[in-house]
Amino acid sequence: MKFSEFYKLLEEHGWRKDGGSLKLLRTKPIIMNNKLVGVIEKASDGGYGIYALEDVIPVTGYGLTEEEAKKDFVEQIKEQADYYKEKKGTYPEWYEENLEVEYRYDMSAFFMSFPFINASELAKSLGINPSLMRKYKSGLAKASSKQKDLIQEKFSGLVERLELVKF
């Protein structure tokens, strides 16, 4: 297969070359099972911000509470899609009428949403450096994808254990 054929195939699947380099940029979002991923983060003013994980989806939401931010995010999805349809005549590729949102937290927003969870103690139970977890909580450090996967795996195990608790 020639490079030109390879790039054409990539473009058909939502990728494009970044200038003359071999770096590829996503031009079409990945919507799996009719779900768009929204990332919840702590806003600088103490509220909540939500953005679409896919860079090609121009949607953000904001609220003083997590629920306000979620409501705003869902409203913005519809408004952006309607605006696109008004300008182009069709809805954008990423929009589907029954589109669901799967929310994910960045670490600082997680601790803000669940303030009763002690970052240091959670870190110890997950086998992570408590000082590093406190940095994630405060936003001074960002977890890498690998670190997030590790935290998610161990956290899921902790949740499974908690589900077995009976009082």
Structural description of this entry:
- Helices cover 46% and strands 17% of the residues.
- The strands form two sheets. A four-stranded mixed beta sheet has the order 5-4-3-6. A two-stranded antiparallel ribbon has the order 1-2.
- It has three domains: 1-30, no CATH class; 31-105; 106-167.
- The model has no long low-confidence stretch (mean pLDDT 84).
- The termini are far apart.
- It has 167 residues and is α+β, with helices and mostly antiparallel strands.
Main beta sheet, described? 4 strands, mixed
The topology string of helices and strands comes to HEEEEEHEHHHH
The order of strands across the largest sheet is 5-4-3-6
- The average pLDDT score comes to 84
β-strand amount: 15-25%
Number of domains: 3
Distance between the termini: 63 Å
Radius of gyration: 20 Å
What best-fitting shape do the alpha-carbon axes yield? globular
If helices are DSSP runs of H or I spanning 4 or more residues, what is the number of helices? 6
Poorly predicted regions are none
